[in-house]
Amino acid sequence: MDVAIALVEPQYHINVGHVSRLMKNFGLHRLYLVNPRYNRTEAVKYSTHGKDVLAAAKVVTLKQLRRKFDVLVGTTAIGATSRLNILRETVRPEQIAKIIQDTRGTRRFCIVLGRESSGLKNKELAMCNLVVTIDTKTRYKTMNIAHALAVLLYEISKLKPGVPVKKTKKKIEIASQQDIGLLLQYVDKVADAGNYDLHKKPLLTVSVKKLLAKSTPTTKEVMLLVSLFRRSLLAIERRKKKR
What we know:
By secondary structure, the chain is α/β, with parallel strands linked by helices. It has helices at about 15-25, 40-45, 50-55, 60-70, 95-100, 120-125, 145-160, 175-195, 200-215, 220-240, and strands spanning about 5-10, 30-35, 60, 70-75, 110-115, 130. The chain is built from 10 helices and 6 strands, in the order βαβααβαβαβαβαααα. Strand 4 (about 70-75), helix 5 and strand 5 form a beta-alpha-beta unit.
């Protein structure tokens, strides 16, 4: 299971220590810290056999994580109450597990855990491809970040690799961030050319990102969509000139 973990503005050393220990339990080693505020010396005391994970942790920005990973999985205890709130449209832990398993290691995932006090802000969730929430079946849904991570990693670890796929001579290339970025550019251009409602454009972009993150599109599939949007854009521009 090659999944990275990121903590945004971690404040309590005990939580950071427990996260490091938990990552060791599940065989993970890449820990990223965004604007950390905890006591590193104290955190080591709670990391037990995860001391090496904590020692190797890197301080980064969320923008750097966005460039480094194919899929950022944000976490929240506050889901959407309106169907128009795309940012907080969430998936379940078992769905995330299946998405990760289905990619068979071809896409880089990073689970992003928010602040202990207030979680991730809307602008931070907007940088994530998917958002996961754990339904506690109670009114009190906010969990300690280490406890929440334990649930997520357990769900991911339950899905053992399936039967190995028989190798073929033809290599299937999974779409890269650059491929998906190009597709998003054309979605934006076609939306502009078609006079799409300006206030809905951010929601459109987020929706396309989520749709792509939930699947495993190949380069060929994404390029076919790019071709479709490119031709659609040209057709719209030609009709405008005729007028």
